[in-house]
Specification:
single chain, about 425 residues, mainly alpha, Methane Monooxygenase Hydroxylase, Chain G, domain 1, about 80% helix, elongated, transmembrane, Memb_transporter_dom, membrane, transmembrane helix
């Protein structure tokens, strides 16, 4: 007897076979799709943040290029005002905080390129091999003189222009000098007078990714300790180690703010506020590194199955909240009192965990909580010695009170006491 063949699509046949059974693939698929949606949102958020951060620079560059072209073409009667807007944009595109230096480098590079290009053209004429020789000579001369990379590139580019355009454009050298001065000067004028950026707003935007990264990975570490999830702790460690871009952006923003406040009269009144940020960069960097040690030891705690007192993850979560409060209070221009209080609470909770009993790696985590809290206190404007004293007080007082309650039922102590501060 022939059996009727099931002609339904394969996925419908598989579905009918699984009727009444538990769908084991559904949760994994849902989790993967949720992670994909989260990554898409994060990527869009990061891109929008980069656009907002670069918007001010884009406006400055556009204004400087337009003014440089207009002045060179209308006032100086340059029929081909190409170099002036290029110099203006090149100055503004330099690393923030180095625009005055970039202007000087542009002019020096132009001088070297013109001298080498004109000299060799006079002796050798023009052509492909002459062009190669001129560029080689310009680069070697500037490198021998110990010039920066920017001067080397500018000298080589100018030499190329001199060799290739001189046969068809007469008296190119003087306009090139003038345009270099004009473009760089207009870029500085736009930065200092016409469209100076708010230095604190620039720093706030640059500080957000670094501080959010630190707070997020500390939160992940705290949750990983609660759940003894080694994978989550390891991922937090890897992510925190990839902090060079965030820290570089913060350092660059601080240098740019210093430059703006130096050359822009409209921003001179912001000098005192900028000092807080400038002094906070180093302790934030130290907090990043110490938090990396904290998370790495948390991975070891989970691997070695050491005891994890309930207050240990709580102390790390308080550190994360302290970082967020520090960012918020800096952005609002407020004294970071809440951030300091939360840092000391993290130390107090760490003292309770220490008194309850931790293993060797646990003692290192406690030590790093104290050290990171001290770093955050210094970042908030507290002197290092005072920050260490407050950390000792928050940790020691809690340890003493816990010791009084545990004398009747002593808890095991770690093999070494965590260092102070």
């Amino acid at each position: 007897m022939a059996v009727a063949r099931d002609r339904r699509p394969p996925f419908l046949r598989r579905k009918s076979l699984r009727e009444g059974l538990v769908d084991v693939d559904g949760p994994r698929v849902s989790e993967a799709m949720e992670e994909l949606r989260h990554r898409s949102k994060a990527t869009l958020h990061d891109r929008l943040h980069r656009v907002r951060t670069a918007a001010g620079l884009a406006l400055q560059a556009g204004l400087a290029a337009g003014l440089a072209y207009l002045i060179s073409h209308r006032l100086l009667k340059n029929p081909q005002p190409v170099f002036a807007p290029i110099s203006a944009v090149g100055t503004l595109a330099a690393s923030v905080g180095q625009r005055l230096r970039r202007t000087i480098e542009l002019i020096i590079g132009v001088a070297v390129g013109v001298a080498v290009g004109d000299g060799l053209i006079y002796l050798l004429g023009t052509g492909a091999w002459q062009l190669g020789l001129v560029v080689t000579a310009a680069i070697l001369l500037t490198v021998f003189a110990g010039a920066s990379v920017a001067i080397v590139i500018q000298a080589a580019a100018t030499a190329v222009l001199i060799v290739t355009l001189s046969p068809s454009t007469q008296n190119l050298e003087i306009p090139r000098f003038v345009d270099a001065f004009l473009g760089g000067g207009i870029a500085l004028l736009v930065t200092a007078i016409l469209l100076p950026l708010n230095p604190l707003r620039v720093i706030n935007r640059a500080a957000r990714p670094a501080l959010d990264l630190l707070a997020g990975q500390l939160d992940t570490c705290a949750e990983a300790l609660r759940n003894r999830d080694r994978g989550a702790a390891q991922r937090a460690l890897f992510r925190l180690r990839e902090n060079k871009e965030e820290l570089a952006a913060l350092s660059e923003a601080i240098e740019g703010a210093k430059e703006t406040i130096t050359i822009s009269p409209a921003r001179w009144h912001r000098r005192d506020e900028l000092t807080h940020y400038a002094e906070a960069a180093d302790p934030i960097d130290r907090a990043m590194r110490n938090s990396g040690t904290l998370i790495r030891r948390s991975v070891t705690i989970i691997e070695d199955e050491e005891p994890v007192p309930e207050t240990m993850p709580d102390s790390i979560a308080h550190l994360a909240e302290s970082v967020r409060l520090l960012r918020h209070e800096f952005a609002a221009g407020e004294e970071p009192e809440k951030a300091r209080e939360r840092s000391l609470r993290a130390v107090s909770e760490a003292g309770r965990a220490y008194a309850e009993g931790v293993g060797f790696s646990g003692s290192v985590v406690i030590a790093q909580v104290r050290t990171t809290a001290s770093d955050l206190m210094v970042a908030s404007g507290i002197e290092q010695e005072e920050a260490n004293r407050l950390v000792r007080q928050a940790f020691g007082d809690r340890e003493q009170r816990s010791g009084e309650t545990t004398e009747q039922s002593p808890a095991p102590k770690p093999p070494t006491a965590p260092p102070v501060g």
